[in-house]
Amino acid sequence: MASILVIDDDDAVLTTIKILLERQSHDVAVASTGKKGLQLLQAQSFDLTIVDIFMPDLDGFETMSRIHLLRPAIPIIVISGYEFQVTSSSPPDFLRIATQLGAVASVRKPFRPSDLLAAVTQCLAARNDRAGD
């Protein structure tokens, strides 16, 4: 199937996504920081990346930006469960902002496996369509 890089600072999320995608016959590499993910990206080829938005070393926005510079054709799915506790106005929608900055899809944590798998299928299909052009 596809080679997928997952970058998230939460080990439970990494393990869950890895198991879920491997059950779908995907080859999955994981990184617990944006920097480690970029190192993996430089060392091998991937068909898709899944990136958490809020991480301690490089946030998801910076990681996405660097992925676009290194491998512009790789689609990115962003994931996040971060919620602002704002009472006076609407909190920023970081998933929407990430898609405006180039992520192909977004998934809010906690996610249903079917939602993540649908986003993966959508991104891989879009990538294959572009490759066929």
List keywords for this structure.
5-stranded parallel beta sheet, 5 helices, globular, 133 residues, Rossmann fold
Structural features, described:
The chain has a five-stranded parallel sheet with strand order 2-1-3-4-5, with helices on both faces. Helix 2 packs parallel to helix 3 (60-70). It has one domain (3-132): Rossmann fold (3-Layer(aba) Sandwich), CATH 3.40.50.2300. The longest helix has 20 residues, at 113-132. The chain is built from five helices and five strands. It has helices at residues 11-22, 34-43, 60-70, 94-100, 113-132; strands at residues 3-7, 27-31, 48-52, 76-80, 105-108. The protein is of the alpha/beta class. 45% of the residues lie in helices and 18% in strands.
Number of helices: 5
Summarize model confidence as the mean pLDDT: 88
Distance between the termini: 20 Å
**What's the level 1 CATH class?**
Alpha Beta
Strand order of the largest sheet: 2-1-3-4-5
State the share of residues found in helices, binned by percent: 40-55%
Which regions have little confidence, pLDDT < 50, spanning 5+ residues?
none
Rg over C-alpha atoms, rounded to the nearest angstrom? 14 Å
How does the overall form come out from the CA principal axes? globular
- Strand pairing plus helix content: what structural class? alpha/beta
CATH architecture: 3-Layer(aba) Sandwich
Q: Percent of residues in beta strands?
A: 15-25%
